[in-house]
Amino acid sequence: MSQAEESILSKPHAVCIPFPAQGHINPMLKLAKLLHVRGFHITFVNTEFNHRRLLKSRGPNALDGLSSFSFESIPDGLPHPSNEDATQDIPSLCEACKKSCLVHFKDLVTRLNDSSNFPSITCIVSDAGMSFTHQVSEELGIPNVGFWTCSGGALLAYIQYPRLVLEGYTPPKDESYLTNGHLDTIIDWIPGMEGIHLKNLPSFIKAKVDEPNYIVLKFIVEEIVDEIHKFSALILNTFDTLESDVMKQIATKFPAVSYTIGPFHSLLDNLTQYNDLKSIGSNLWKEDTHCLEWLDTKQLNSVVYVNFGSITVLSNDQLVEFAWGLANTKMNFLWIVRSDLVMGDSAIFPHEFLAEIKERGFLGGWCPQEQVLSHPSIGGFLTHCGWNSIFESISYGVPMLCWPFFADQQTNSWFTCNRWGVGMEIDSNVKREVIEELVRELMIGEKGKEMKENALKWKKVAEEAVTSPNGSSYMNFDKLVREVLSPKGSSLLPVD
Question: Active-site residue 276, yes or no?
Fold first, then answer.
């Protein structure tokens, strides 16, 4: 065996498996890259469906990676969808992962460990929702580290579900509970979330037992909340100062140590060995980079960025209201419109709208979001409040308009607007006049200026968190690698 081969086989080997949705794949890939920079051999496991989508969106050689960064895939147990560019149904995906993934994951791990081409697997880094990985890690006797991809606040909220049921807050008994003021009830007994209303807790918590979202709630409670204590440690893409009160409460709930090591993208940018990994991407839709050239033609802080993420859907009426609200501001905007953004149809804009925005609006199918948010022309972000979007916007110093759709997004919006001072929320009943007014306030109003100042303060704190040698996230990442993920005798690289 050559010296180079011996070096490869002496590396610690992390198998990273995200929940198979865009908002989970993105941060898991960044985490895998962070570990690779520290000397780990990485096996990144997608579902076959998402593996095909990545190859389609990024090209047939997009996942070739490096000699010590490989991609594998397992079936998800769902039939092939008619539209391969559409997001899979989340309740169905939760059920399928629970029933189908274990046997395929075990077979993959066995094959990798039996191969002489790879180092022995030394740890699993699992999305917190892929709890079947516990059985595999127990059989191998290796650490299984959980990655919670949402905010710490969302995790703390989900932990409250049993008490919310016990005290009669949920599930709602009938439709009247959604309109009679019940959702405005203040939940005053969650330390770290004082003043939060029932409506601001994750939407799944308020699901009725006969609707599809209740399936997702059961999955979160049974596969995550009830199982999370089994992980050797828990990773969160946040930083200590942003969620300090919340993280103190989480620490009292679980025996495993929680490591806050975000923002991942900023931590990666500070690591000099990262350049070789930049070509490996995770977007399931083909990116339209022409929007960056368009942004280059716009003035500083003059563009509103609009993106509702990978799952949110709008009615055609909502699409039109957002469209005219943006157009009537007479401001520049970049709007990402997925092919499946409109429920049951493709997005159809009025001809008059397209003519009105010709010189100041850019409509794209998908984009490299971090490059957009970090562009100097971006002055504000109209977002669905997914955690990746919120956290990236904070770390780039961009204030937000919040239109939460489902899941943890209501909770993220509450923290953004009420605790961090960098957002304003749009009512779920979308009206163009309100959109116009709020966009103007965001971009040129006094409230908008205050939010921008707060956002820039948080940007500075985020930068400090990932900067060596004393940044909290920087140090937490080093502790995670040395104390949890690395077996004694493995060859680790220094942090820088």
Answer: no
